[in-house]
Amino acid sequence: MPKRGAGPLAGTERDTSIGEVGFRCRVLLGGLIALVACGGAPSGAGETDPGDDGDGTTLPTFSGGDGAESGGDTDDGSDDGDPLCETLAPRQLRLLTRAEYESTVADLFALEPRASCETDNHCPSGSACNADGACVLTSVPLTELWLPADGHTWSTVHVAGTFNDWTPTVGAGLWSLEYDGDTQTWRGAFDISEGVHEYKFVLDETDWITDPTNPETTGEFNNSVLTVEGETQEVDVLGLGLGSELPAESRPPGFPFDNNAEAGLVSATHVEAYMRAAGTVAQLALDTRDTWQPCDPHGDGACAQTFAADLGLRVFRRPLQDAERHRYADIAAADGASLALEAMLVSPSFLYRSEIGEPDGDRFRLTGHEIATSLAYTLTGSTPDDALLAAAGAGELETPAGIEAHARRLLDDPRARDTLGRFAAQWLGVEQIATVDKNAQLFPMMNAPLRASMLEETRRFVEYVAFDGTGRYDELLTADYSFVDARLAALYDMQPPAGQGLKRAELPADRAGLLGHASVLGSYAYSDQSSPVRRGLFVRRRILCQELPEPPPDAGSVPEIDPDATTRERFDQHSSDPACAGCHVLIDPVGFGFEHFDAVGAFRAEDAGEPVDASGIATAVGGIDPDDEAFDGVVELGALLATSPEAPACLARQYFRFAHGRLETEDDSCAVEALADAFATADHDLVELFVATLTAGEFRYRR
Question: What is the pTM of this model?
């Protein structure tokens, strides 16, 4: 849960007596002072601070409770959703993530994603805003040069030109070509900037010759001419550009999602960012005021009261208290809707999701509006819609049946697909494919557009399985299809699909399910080679939820590349070390099953001149007979994991973490096991897993 902040604004008084500016500082900074100071474990819902938070909001008082007690009731056999397990989670406040913040303000005020850019800051990372107001990405692929050997036996071949200042020697940085015995050519791929260049090949560091494969030459020295052009592509302007201005979330070890409640630490940096964002949102919202402003409250007391009540319900996701309503109405009447809105957007009541609840015996029951908020953010990644707020006000969310009805309604919302795709990318850890280092000379195709396609393939695939496919967990690991575009089709050695964008297509026989996705294969590999260890750990940690200890200090590093040894041979030597063998016997035999794929996920039949051996053993995977642990390649590994109860139980655990915003503790074992059992009873139907998570007693009650 949020911890006590140490920002310079906490506990200070900031005032000025000059008109609206001074009033604005008092209003906005007052709320944010409370935000920075807010923290600890809530000691009693309904208790209020003797003062207010500067914007009229009364907050629960907080104490530094250790959260170790277990005050939940046991199941009494009733059907009103009482907890199934004795222990309950502590009450908490959850800071909106950057993605949730942006989706929330967009939905509240009908703000559309930018159709054009004004500055580079409005564009996705790596792209720039051009003079036409479009985000463009210019990438220069590596330039490949080659020289046929034609029976010559040169010791070295280099290239020199205007692109490397005609460097004459190896020591000074001459660019080397490597001999390819299969094609009997000297080849090299080089990062050469856009423009027109002159060059020559240098044989054995003495003879300079014109490129015989290039007919274009120039000048008295008959230099070869090379023209390099960059590939410029227009990039979608993602979102409103607000999320990128907020501090990035931190993820505790073992927690793969960006919504961890305890990591929601508010610092002075957050305060400044929230104030800037609030001002930006207020300005943008004025253009859509007809969608959220019932009347002009400036100078109109009656309208100001209606304005504050209506807007406050939507922004705070609950009805305003009388003191709050009067406070914001006064601001709106005196200074207009924009300042009142700005003040609401820096209030803790907006920036935090409340899971405090109301006393219910020796436990706490979440209010209808708190449940509405949790349902909305868990399933759609945004604020409750009007129907959900109305249901909360009418008491429809007080029973599991009422919650289930609205959960299923929200799962039909298109935003549920996007939220599931984001969950999948974080669960699998494949977001890193956008930035993970890859050797540019070995993998010249690995540019930003291809990386984006890799990530989108995985998101789209999981969304499709859940909502359009069988809906069952095993399809995630065994599907013989995926979603590819021309870039991915080239990497997968497939025929490109017709049209633009990702299309459903049948995969080659060597790939199936998530384990064959380039986002997975590329994320869990090194820059220049595959990694049985990283890929084996991916299966153990992300697919099976099996945590393994960190390697000992004397474990050593990755085995050095030996051109005469396959990856399997090098890592077999590595894991034979007694200090490593205890864990590597569980990791490497699984990771070897991915060996048909290189560092970016392209298929390879050979490794170091030898046929790839992708056989493996899935040791210690629950539910699999020891006689059936052997497999060959990712297709068989995926099928093996799909038959294990451990793998779908792990997904249930991961979704529990995502929905509750925290790592489970020992006290949660009953709840997590009950969720896995419910998932199994539903034949591992993904939608039923989501619904079971949100209708469980643990979702509605706190201690």
Answer: 0.78
